[in-house]
Amino acid sequence: MLKIEAVLQPSKLDAVKDALLEAGIEGMTILEARGHGRQKGHTEFYRGREYTVDLLPKVKIEIVVSDELKEKALQAIIGAARTGRIGDGKIFVSRVEEAIRIRNDERGETAL
Amino acid sequence: MFRRATLMLLLFACLGLSPLALAQTSSSAPAVQAPAAAQAPVTQAQIAALEQSVHNAQTASATAQSAADNAWMLVSAALVLLMTGPGLALFYGGLVRKKNILGTMMQSFAMMGLVTILWAVVGYSLAFGHGNAFIGGFEHVFLRGVGLTPNTDYAATIPEQTYMIYQLMFAIITPALITGAFAERMKFSAMAVFLSLWSLLVYSPMAHMVWGVGGFLNATGGHVPSLDFAGGTVVHITSGVSALVTCIYLGKRIGYPHTNMPPHSMVLSFIGACLLWVGWFGFNAGSALGSGPLATSAFINTHFAAAAAALGWTIAEWIHNGKPTALGAISGAVAGLVAITPGSGFVQPFAALAIGLIAGVFCSFMVFEVKSRLRYDDSLDAFGVHGAGGTLGALLTGLFATGAINAAFGRNAAGAALPTGAMDGHWSQILNQLAGIGLAWGISIVGTLVLLFAVDKVIGLRVSPEEESAGLDLSQHGEEGYDLNG
Hints:
The complex is a heterodimer of chains A (112) and B (486). Chain A has 112 residues and is an alpha+beta fold. Chain A is built from two helices and six strands, in the order βαββββαβ. In chain A, the strands form two sheets. Chain A has a four-stranded antiparallel sheet, covered by helices on one side. In chain A, strands 3-4 form a two-stranded antiparallel ribbon. In chain A, α1 (13-22) runs antiparallel to α2. Chain B is an all-alpha fold and 486 residues long. Chain B has a single domain, classed as Ammonium transporter fold (Orthogonal Bundle), CATH 1.10.3430.10. Chain B has helices at 2-17, 20-23, 44-95, 101-128, 160-178, 188-211, 232-250, 266-285, 293-321, 326-340, 349-374, 382-400, 429-458, 465-470, 472-477. Chain B starts with a helix and ends in a 9-residue tail after the last helix. Classes of the chains: A alpha+beta (112), B mainly alpha (486). The interface between A and B is medium-sized, with 8 and 17 residues.
């Protein structure tokens, strides 16, 4: 089982969600986040003074999928989120040790 | 270089608008028609009946006028209270960081409670009772003698209790304004004690000097008659200067100025500012103490100044920064409202526009340039807007006041208004205004320093660094302002 964490532009959330659903991935956790990579922040004004805001709003999607679905999930995310500009985001993949369905104690890939 | 030149041009444009004030003429009361001469002989009975009906008509008219005046005054009192709660609470609250929202609002709210009690017990008496030129006496402690009949020293057509409650709302908002300077770092207990004492020892005396019977600066019969229609000196200079003293005494917030501390909710501040604008109609037009044409003049001047000042600050900021901010626009409006306060019942409408425009540009300069150069942490610009705006307004009142709007210094034998301000040729009024300004600055500085020192020694004024980091909401009130996940 693999965990896929994707940090995205908030405006891409709907497109990525739809793409994942189309790929057959139904469970996901969505978090509001702030951060930046190489994308510069923007400047704001307060009382005549300019300052840089470098904690930019982001959205993070976390999904846990079986190994077979890895490439399909990644393609879905990348296809929906890519614009070609700095700020598109990043995806991290890590191994998951256990998955449990709380309702009925199912474990392993059937719990996904 | 280009920006400086354009800003100077703007300032001169503001001053250039001033002559427009001369172009306006005010209308006076309609001419009285002379009755046609009676042809038939008139009996004594008819004369008596006529006298009775004239008397009845006069009584009815006076009653109607009183009713109109009282209605407007009660509404005005409510409007002024609205300025504090929630106007100022929201305006200031939105400008601080999220962790201090409740603490900030509580400071204004505390004034609504505390000052009311103090005013009823002794504050009103010290401000408006008979005393000497500098402070009233104790004749009205516990509001003794303040009933539902008019006090002709102040307002002949409304119950004295209406006058008292109206003035109370001013007494409430004045210390609340000061809280802007020490935002995010003062203990709630210390603030309550400090501002309560300030209300009695700085506000009541100042109110007495300007408005109280026999007051040193009273426009009617004062030793140095000073024109302050609605409290530019009494409210804004005192609170603004006291704010400056307090923020310097208390010191800067931890992390200021290199840590950025932008407003956590400009939305709240925007709402608060608009409530202030509307409430100010009660503050200024209500100071006419009646519902007649003078209230209309003050109402119009208030609105015109706010609009012009919002524009002035916005344009100045647009030139200075390249973008007009919402914070600048609403601050501009408030600056204009502050500046017109002393002159709202004395100047022509186009003078109000000029005053507003000048105040918007001037106060923005105070906040952008002076504050950052001198490096004091006047967190919410209480001095930059109220202290500086009030001082400017008091001076411009001396310039633009005219007897055509308000015969503040009485009339001559022919019935013409005596010269009021420089606009009428009475240039020495500006000196009187300076005297009032000087007195307000002096009392505020001395009174505030003494009180700060005393309260600091006994209770301690500032929260600890840990409390300041955690925020006032948690450290002072054990609450959180927002629980959006709840």
